[in-house]
Design goal:
Strand content of chain A: under 5%
Oligomer: heterodimer
Number of domains of chain A: 1
Largest interface: A-B, 68 and 58 residues
Radius of gyration of chain A: 24 Å
Shape of chain A: globular
CATH class of chain A: Mainly Alpha
Strand order of the largest sheet of chain B: 1-2
CATH superfamily of chain A: Cytochrome Bc1 Complex, Chain C
Largest sheet of chain A: 2 strands, antiparallel
Distance between the termini of chain A: 39 Å
CATH architecture of one domain in chain B: Orthogonal Bundle
CATH superfamily of one domain in chain B: Cytochrome c-like domain
Order of helices and strands of chain A: HHEHHHHHHHEHHHHHEEHH
Strand content of chain B: under 5%
Shape of chain B: extended
Number of strands of chain B: 4
Helix content of chain A: 55-70%
Number of helices of chain B: 8
Number of strands of chain A: 4
Structural class of chain A: mainly alpha
Strand order of the largest sheet of chain A: 1-2
């Protein structure tokens, strides 16, 4: 960040800002002092939307905690107390529960944006790493949050996921006992998950601040993936991107509100309205939708430890993207072959999610053919890793990118000239 | 602008594809027969409960279901939501005996129910419930409309889904054949018979009518804030659509110089 030349007009604020230049900080990071490429498209809205989701989760979460009781005997009833007796408690809980899904939708699109436009490439590797860390923290936070209502899926989801750690050689069982705080998922598990579910969002918030800081050093990437060459390529963040983000936020809120007010339980599982019962196992234990692709990868590998390793590797491999991709162009816009494989990767990830929602013993009826979900999951898992380990490194180095534009401004001017006769 | 809507549409459809694609199948597991889908008054954007049906449903619960099933999350006072007056609720609560205490001598005692009491269940504990039901546990009904795939349609289909078992199906001891219950063998005997209750409003008490009313009532019991939620949702959406429209035009105006090719 360049040294600020921001001067508040009011002389008291000016004196305050000289002693604590926090107004300059805001001006230079979200205000007119931060200049961003002038050609950012709507895919760039999802960063600020993710920040908005985090704040919504923290605010609704803090209020919910005022009425929630983290105890195995009381948690389920306290959630019903929120739903029935607390003023607007149903609204808070439905916003929080659906807000988690909204957060993941937004972050998945945000990650895809990064993959599509090469936002992980130099000089933004640190920014990308921080993003992957935020995603990992979100996974942990979302998982522990889903345990708190202490319904059947909370309990059995917690049992399945924590049991994964028993695959660790030698000390697996000890790790699981340590995570549980006992010899099964019980009150100590619920209480520690509650504690961590309250802590981690603030860790995420800290990481988000670092993420934004790391963004503002090189500045935003852009759909062309070429570097900013001067102020003619940029516009001030405020009012240009604040106005654009506000419009995007409005659209997002409409989408969010439809779920909260009209389909509040669509993304949840009916079994979670049954209180946790260690004596009764649900017919199918399914995690929240945002984990389903990784659940499918876990179950695709015949070996337990192998499955766990593959599942974690599927996320951690994102860290390697800056090295895997060796293309001369950042943006997929100029890499038609790579772009095809990337869209295929997206379709494959959605397929993995679909497989994860189904039992591996079941069959998908396609036309006259029956494909077992296990086979489908294995094929999709193979493509998932093939994409990162072979397609990205090979195609990015082999495919000659289309000619890159000379500058951002030139492209924007071309567009303006094209639009002009129409006006 | 057209291009922008195309892009936004893409984003929205991608997001919803992610959501429904991942989830649709998760709910597929359940009973074997198709559920009967009723045109509930609480369906849809402006859905509301029907107080007459809720009151009949409560009567069915009280006179039939409550012999075995509790409704522990509902207090008598909640019944004012379905159109009972405070005096009626008070009189109804007074018909129940509630264990309270300890008193000043340290003893528990029974007293008349009050509107603030939860509706007492038929059994003291799970063991007693199982002992009275051939080992099966009748579930609490407060949330049953949200904890079963299909919700009120499932309850209705279950209550009207008792048949003679098809040829070749052997029922286990004490079990009854039901078309929609997972596994088709249910411990609950057919609970509803024609005219087993007499509705004050003169509605004929057919099995279908009682099943519909009690399903309606149990949906209310599971989701008592549905009406408030849907009517607030409409207002919120209206507000958001207007606000987003204003943001759209504000954004367009802000960007006009850049779109014209000026440097800012």
């Amino acid at each position: 960040m360049a040294t600020s030349n921001y001067q508040p007009k009011n002389r008291f604020l000016r004196a305050f800002n000289e002693q604590l230049p926090i107004l300059s900080l805001i001006h230079d990071s979200l205000g007119p002092g931060y200049r961003a490429p002038k050609n950012l498209n709507y895919w760039w809205n999802f960063g600020s939307l993710a920040g908005f989701c985090l704040i919504v989760q923290i605010v609704t979460g803090i209020v919910l905690v005022m009425h929630y009781t983290p105890h195995a005997d009381l948690a389920f009833d306290s959630v019903e107390h929120i739903m029935r007796d607390v003023n607007y408690g149903w609204l808070l809980r439905y916003i929080h529960a659906n807000g988690a899904s909204m957060f993941f939708i937004v972050v998945y699109i945000h990650i895809f944006r990064g993959l599509f436009y090469g936002s992980y490439r130099s000089p933004r590797e640190t920014l990308w790493f921080l993003g992957v860390i935020i995603y990992l923290l979100m996974m942990a936070t979302g998982f522990m949050g889903y345990v708190l209502p202490w319904g059947q899926m909370s309990f059995w989801g917690a049992t399945v996921i924590t049991n994964l750690f028993s695959a660790v050689p030698l000390v697996g069982d000890e790790i699981v006992t340590f995570l549980w705080g006992g010899y099964s998922v019980d009150n100590p598990t619920l209480q520690r998950f509650f504690s961590l579910h309250y802590l981690l969002p603030f860790v995420i918030l800290g990481m988000v601040i670092l993420h934004i800081w790391a963004l503002h050093i090189p500045g935003s990437n852009n759909p062309l993936g070429i570097d900013v060459q001067g102020p003619q390529d940029q516009v001030p963040f405020h009012p240009y991107y604040t106005a654009k983000d506000a419009f995007g936020l409005g659209l997002f809120l409409i989408f969010f509100a439809v779920f909260v007010f009209y389909f509040p339980n669509f993304l949840g599982h009916p079994d979670n309205y049954i209180e946790a019962n260690p004596m009764v196992t649900p017919a199918h234990i399914v995690p929240e939708w945002y984990y389903l692709p990784f659940y499918a990868i876990l179950r695709a590998i015949p070996d337990k430890l192998g499955g766990v390793v593959a599942m974690f590797a599927a996320i951690l491999i994102l860290f390697a993207m800056p090295w895997l991709d060796g293309s001369k162009a950042r943006s997929s816009r100029f890499r038609p072959i790579y772009r095809t494989f990337l869209w295929l990767f997206v379709a494959n990830a959605i397929l993995l999610g679909y497989v994860g929602a189904n039992s591996p013993d079941d069959f998908l009826h396609l036309g006259g053919v029956d494909i077992s979900f296990l086979t489908l999951g294995r094929i999709a898992t193979a493509y998932y890793f093939l994409f990162f380990l072979v397609i990205v490194p090979v195609v990015s180095r082999w495919e000659e990118p289309l000619p890159l534009p000379k500058s951002i401004n030139e492209e924007v001017l071309k567009k303006a000239a094209k639009a002009a006769p129409a006006e | 602008m057209k291009a922008m809507f195309k892009k936004t549409g893409l984003i929205v459809s991608l997001a919803s594809a992610l959501v429904s694609g991942g989830f649709g199948a998760a709910q597929a597991a359940g009973g074997s027969a198709e559920l009967k889908h009723l045109d509930w008054s609480f369906n849809g954007m402006f859905g509301r409960y029907d107080d007459a049906s809720l009151q009949r449903g409560f009567q069915v619960y009280r006179e039939v279901c409550s012999a075995c099933h509790s409704l522990k999350h509902i207090a008598f006072r909640n019944l004012t939501d379905i159109g009972f007056s405070e005096a009626e609720v008070k009189a109804l609560a007074a018909q129940y005996e509630i264990v309270d205490g300890p008193d000043e001598f340290g003893d528990m005692y029974t007293r008349e129910g009050r509107p603030s009491d939860r509706i007492p269940g038929p059994f003291e504990n799970e063991q007693q419930a199982r002992a009275s039901n051939g080992g099966a546990l009748p579930p609490d009904l407060s949330l049953v409309a949200k904890s079963r795939v299909g919700g009120p349609d499932y309850i209705y289909s279950l209550l009207t889904g008792y048949h003679e078992p098809p040829a070749g199906v052997e029922l286990r001891a004490g079990m009854n054949y039901n078309a929609v219950f997972p596994g088709n063998q249910i411990a609950m005997a057919p609970p509803l018979f024609e005219d087993m209750v007499e509705f004050a409003d003169g509605t004929p008490a057919t099995v279908e009518q009682m099943a519909e009313d009690v399903s309606h009532f149990l949906m209310w019991a599971a989701e008592p804030k549905l009406e408030e939620r849907k009517s607030m949702g409409f207002r919120v959406l209206l507000f958001l659509i207007i606000m987003t429209g204003l943001f759209y035009f504000a954004n367009k105006k802000v960007w006009l110089p850049v779109k014209r090719g000026e440097n800012v």
